[in-house]
Structure formats: C-alpha cells, structure tokens
Amino acid sequence: MCGIVGYIGEKDATPIILSGLKRLEYRGYDSAGLAVLQDGKIEIRRDAGKLSQLSALVNDQPVHGKVGIGHTRWATHGIPSARNAHPHLGTTGRVVVVHNGIVENFLELREELAVEGVPFNSDTDSEVIVHLIERSMGGGNDLVEGVRLALRNLKGAHGIVVMSADEPDKIVAARIGNAGGVVIGFGEGEMFIASDIPAILEYTRKMIFLESFQMAVITKDSVTVQTLDGKKVESQVHSISWDPVAAEKGEYRHFMQKEIHEQVRSLTDTLAGRVDFEEGRIRLPELNLTPELGQQIKKIIITACGTAAHAGMVGKTMIERIARIPVEVDIASEFRYREPLVDENTVVLAISQSGETADTLAAMEEARQRGAVVWSIVNAIGSQAMRLADGYISMQTGPEIGVASTKAFTAPLVDLYMLAVLLGDLRGTLSADVRKKLVGDLRLIPDLVGRCLDREDDVRQVARVMKDVRNMLYLGRGINMPIAYEGALKLKEISYIHAEAYPAGEMKHGPIALVDRDMPVLAIVPRDPWYEKMISQIEQAKARGGCVLVLATDGDDRAAELADHIFWVPEISWMLSPVLTVIPLQIFAYHIASYRGLDVDQPRNLAKSVTVE
Ligand code: F6R
Question: What is the CATH topology of the domain spanning 3-249?
Fold first, then answer.
C-alpha cells in the first residue's frame, strides 16, 4: 500500500509530486508528505489526513526545487499523524526517505540504533531506514553505497526512494520483494519515479519497472539499474498504451461511477483481437497455451483475493462446464500456507487487478516452487503478477482508480469465459456448433452491458429507499452465487452496511433465522439453470416477512410478483449472465454510499493495492 513518487529534472518538483500523489491516493490516504531540495537544504512538508491537507500546507508554506520525493500513507506502524507521515529525515538533516512496505525487524533495528544514540522522531517502522542509510554513509560511503548497505539489514518487502542534499544530482530507488512496484519514467532531461503507472502517465509513457532486489540510480538524464550486489542490469523499456485521460474523473462525481460506466468500453476492448466470430475461435497468445499443455492439464487452481477471487469463483463454473477440467478456487492468503497439492499437470491461475497483491504474488511463487504452470489474469501492465507468470491474459480495462473494483471484475469474467472456450477447443470437449454458439454469445456483451447501465436511474431510486438499512442478505446460486458475494462486498466496503452473502440453498441450514422485516434479502434470479430453486428460496424469505429485492431477467412476471423492489437485466446465455447481473449491484452500492454522503472512492481503512500480508 502507500504511494511513493519522485522527480528530478529542470521543472519545479512540488506540483509534479503533488499531482503524482493525487493519482496514487487510492493506495493510502492516512497522511501525505513531500521533501524538496531547496537551496541546498531538504525542505519537508507533511500532514495527517488526505492529500488536500498537504496541498493546503504547501500553499501556506511554499517550497520549490528541481529534485523531490513524496508519499501518501496507509498506516501500518504508528497512528496516522503528521509526526508519522513520510518523508523521514535522518539525524544530519541531509538524507530523506519515503518507504512502502513493512520493516519486519524494525523493533530490533530501532533498539540497536537507539543504543548508538540515534534519536527517533516518529513511531513508524520506516524511520529506521533513513538512520541505517546515514550510518552506512558514516564511513565515507556515498548515497548509493549507503542505501545498498542499509537494505541488507531489512527484513520484509520494500519499495523506497531516497534523496541526499549532498548529492543533489540523483535519486536512489530500490525494491525488495513484493511491497508494490517501483516504476521509473523517462522524460526529456527529467525522470519520474512512482509506485504505479497512473502517477506519471501524464508526463511519459516510456517506463521501466524495478524487479525485486534491484536498485536504480536516477539522474535527470539517465537511469542505471543494478542488483543489490552492484551488478549492472539491462531493464526492458516499456511503452505504456494507457490513455492518461482514463486516470481522470471527467464528468463523473466519483471514479467508481466512471469506472462502472466504462464497462462497455473495457469489455469491447477485452474482446478485440481475441475473438474470431467467423471461425468461432479464441486467441490468447500471451498465455503461451500450446495444444500439448492444453491436453496435459489435470487441474486448475484459481487463486486471488477479494473481488478477484469472486471472479475466479464464476470462472470455476465456466471452465468446468465448457472445458471439463476440475477447478478449485483458493483465496491466495490461504493457498500460500496450505502446502497445496500441485504438480506439473496443475495450472495455478492468479487473478489480480493491481498485479501487486502480496498474498496473490506469494501464492504464485508457492505454486512455481511446487512445479505448477503459473498463469495470471492481470490489469496493471508490467506488474509483478504479469512478470512472474508463464503466461498471462491482460485485462483491457485501463487504470482502475476507485478503491472498490468494478470494471476489473467484469473483464476477468469475460477472460475466464474465453479461456474456458480455448481450453475446450484444445481438449476437444466442444463440438464446432457449440463452440461457435459460445463464441457468438460474446458478441452481445457490450450492447447488453450498455443496456444495464442505461437503467442506472431505476437502481438509484431503490438505493434511495434502502439507504438507511443496517443489514442485507445477498442470495444467489450456481454461476450467480459469487455475484451475491461480490454484491455484498461492494455494499459493505463503500457504504459500511453489514451485508452477508450466502449460496441460497444454504439458507435453511441456519441463516434463514436472520430473516425479518429488518433484514432485506437481495435475490439474484436471472433465467439460469438454478432459476426454479431461487424462486422457492424467495418464497421462503417472503413467508418470514422479509423485504425482498429481486434481480431478474427482463419480462419475468413471476419474479416481479414476489419482489418488493426489482432490478432488471436483459436476457443473455446463462454462462455469461454474471457479467450483467453484477452491474445493478455495483450501481446499487455506489448510490447507497453516495446517499449516505460517504467517500466512495476512498473508503475508510482500505487501500487499492494490498501489498502487505
Ligand atoms: C474490492 C477490491 C478488493 C480487491 C482485492 C484484490 O472491491 O477491490 O477486494 O479485489 O484487494 O486486489 P487485486 O485484484 O489488485 O489483486
């Protein structure tokens, strides 16, 4: 979590750092700060709270210089306060650090430094880093050597950016493990550093990504990447195709609302170049899926966290039904410690929007060590989840900024469906007619998603009525059971309303005891193979006095009769129905949170990339 930025060049660093932090605020918003080299001295401005606090402070007490670093914090050690905000300055006042990650052995290091007489000015784990660097520079080492030696002492995963008043021509950045990325962008006579692409997309599209155990020495004209042992490394320069405007809110009130509405475009892009409607075939070249590998697979384990894991649950039904391969879905934080049973005939497929989630990356590493084939479905270009994999599918959603994931949920649903068809094709589980029908159904997606979005106002009106509920129960079955989980997650994370999801058939085994007038039930009932079962579940809830919201297929009078409130979705093949059914639930959660006056894009306690365990 946390966002870090850096700038070195000829322009005023302060506005560039502030605009980079603005785009990284989704990574943490407990405090923010920046350090700029002004007249040979390091000037720091930092404050608790959101970036607007820092901007106001900088307005009051301006600071200008051509080199600077900044940070937006998601607190782990030490409460959110100005004192604990980054950057952290060393005792000499000549070295300053911003840090993303957790220094796992910080207590030990802090004690060691305190015994040596080092005074501490914060309660953070990060502050030890700057003191270690200064200590390492004590013997006449320069900044680069100081950073290298200091990093040897740290346990845990880290991204750091360091600057020294005595070496104003450079910034040093380093990455150890999976604490979030370090991206370096090339300008003309200027260079940019950030934890994520959108922060610097406005200035450059030419970027390199630091790998774990690498550090970079960045001057205004060059970057030298080396391992922590000092060996020079050639990094691949990527040209990023994302549109910088995609990282702006535009006419929408919130990023989440904008991103919900972007789903027509993101799903059109998801299909583009991958679907041959004439032949009824799918192409996913970056997956490196050969016919031999297709035959060899005995089991697929999908691993992910949160919303991405819900997408995986839908994918299980798709792949099992279409390609007839057994699929397990395992939450990454569980999988990594399970001593999972995988071998070279198992594919472990990770799904991640950020490509940085620590648990997901650890699960991929665990799978690799145990000999599995590792794939990923990932949004952030060049992220670790993309690079760690033997093959990947790149979500075509562009940057997702709202903390609650929306367009990065529907894209992997379609990716998983395409993967299922491709695997089915390679393994001969599909007749040509069935394959063509399955592929043909994809053609409808963008239009039907658009029709769901056109009904935003109907959903908003229900949200207005329901905005003060205290609890909700979401029910679904079969392929739409994970959509109940996803709908409930969206509601709780942005509106702070307690929402639970259940496979509807489990109701009678306990949760039905909860149902009364104060526990509205939202039942997902499209016309799919579980339709009749769901209808009887609604009847059971109604019989106990429950207020029922029903999500049904256009024209379903039977569902409408049972509903206190209804959300409609257009007809589509049942296998693709989750792509549509989730949309009213995203809109519903968005408007409830909006009516409650909450900070939709930056809900409390959350951050977009979860780079800690
Ligand atoms: C919920 C949400 C999270 C993420 C989860 C995994 O709206 O966004 O549950 O889905 O933290 O993140 P990624 O996909 O980046 O690995």
Answer: Glutamine Phosphoribosylpyrophosphate, subunit 1, domain 1 (3.60.20)
